[in-house]
């Protein structure tokens, strides 16, 4: 069936994009091809590399099944699959910036992205500058003649500021820079970066696409103008992923729509309820009317996912730890997008601009697929513990 028509619903697209069962004797799922070597029929074919698959690092039918499915969701010219979400950040950055280039990065970026820029990219001679997530069209003032890339992440990690992506794209493109976006929070179901002018869309497929906290993978999708260079960088770095992980992510993609809808509903229900709890000063969730960027979120996004933060009413690390230690259903662990709920203490000490001013310590909650009433009861245990911690 054709799966790229714009009239096809998202869950139909998720169920049928990527592989064609008829290519493999009608089996519904694609084969998991474990491969380094690919044989050629003769020396001439070897010399000209005139066949679809040439070596395991450059692509396999399993990899294609996933990347074509992601292309159908992103509207991209091509997608690469890399071994982690962090590699989905580092591979395009290494591919598109060089010594002497200026790279603008949003200050509310995922911390390991900042760490990569501040250590490896600086060592390689790239000039790094952080900008306010709420800068919008004002980014034009920061763009220089050597600005090559504007790196966005919206909402921002942990504090969920929404960026004016179309305004940033307009200013960047006017100056000849490209725009990358870490779109892990929204997935292409709730925001399609390329439709808003972004050149390269980045996903930690570890989160919602994989969905079960057992796989690490990243995808990077490019528009027509950037695709050739991205694929070349991917092949140069040899940063390909294992076929079992690629297969697991394609498997996860088939159910991502229904899972995400459950995450969305539960997270929003809990976020609204939390706004009424006496121990909570603020809930940082862009789909809430109280969020300072709610209007921008409403303009550009068509849904919200399952992760947000809360600000406790007063207190410090003692109260934050008391909250976390009292939880019995929420696990204390990094990552998100899996079926199970998680909580982590938020650290904003790396920020240089978007430090914010908060009434108490922050806690990030990943709302899983458990029953909402059980999760509320668990949070209540945390709030009670925080209220009595001394
Ligand atoms: C926004 C964002 N981007 C990228 C990543 C990196 O993904 P991975 O854990 O697969 O390296 C994460 C992980 O938490 C993330 O939150």
CA distance, first residue to last residue: 62 Å
* Helical coverage, percent range: 25-40%
Derived from helix and strand composition plus strand pairing, the structural class reads alpha/beta
Largest sheet: 7 strands, mixed
Strand count = 12
Low-confidence stretches: none
* Principal-axes shape call: globular
Structural key phrases:
single chain; 390 residues; alpha/beta; 7-stranded mixed β-sheet; 5-stranded mixed β-sheet; 12 helices; globular; binds pyridoxal-5'-phosphate
Describe the protein in words.
The chain is of the alpha/beta class and 390 residues long. Helices cover 38% and strands 15% of the residues. The chain is built from twelve helices and twelve strands. A seven-stranded mixed beta sheet has the order 1-7-6-5-4-2-3, sandwiched between helices. It has a five-stranded mixed beta sheet with strand order 8-9-12-11-10, with helices on one face. Helix 3 runs parallel beside helix 9, helix 4 runs parallel beside helix 5 and helix 11 runs antiparallel to helix 12. The N and C termini lie far apart (62 Å). The model has no long low-confidence stretch (mean pLDDT 97). The site of pyridoxal-5'-phosphate (PLP) has 13 residues, from helix 4.
